Fold this protein.
Amino acid sequence: MSDAYLFTSQRLGFRPWREDDLPAFAAMNADAAVMEHFPKTLNVEESAAFLARLQDQFQEYGYCYYAVEIRETGEWIGFIGLAYQAYKTAFTPAVDIGWRLVPGSWGQGYATEGARRCLEHAFTVLNLDRVIATCTLSNKPSERVMQKLGMNCLGHLNHPKLKGYPEYERCLCYGIEQAEWWDL
């Protein structure tokens, strides 16, 4: 295991963010295919601000959407991890699990493998009681990952961070309790 990794799965390494991640992170966030289920792509400044928020969240909570690499090659492929969400809904405040990967890594099971490992970390190391995940109604690939993780559909929500974007505002929320995780 690389000293840079906080933890690993079979094929992936999870690590904190570095400033030199910004070019690849910004390129991923500027890709229209990657951002299909979000209101817009992000420019370099928006990606830099997002990266700074991830670093701050790691400092404050000890977790974030982690930078993810393929262990065998060291290739950075995006993020998978946990984030504290305090926006107002029936499902929050809560810790959510999320992922965003570069297109070249799609279809290889990385999102499911990585998210499964992050749930294990959430429940065994961080001792969280519950983890949620949200996605737009049209984001069937992410919803399938949530289902593969054993998460249950908790219901629909109008995402407060997506007001003004009617085609994205209506979302699904999935969740899993620590006790359910042990039963999988």
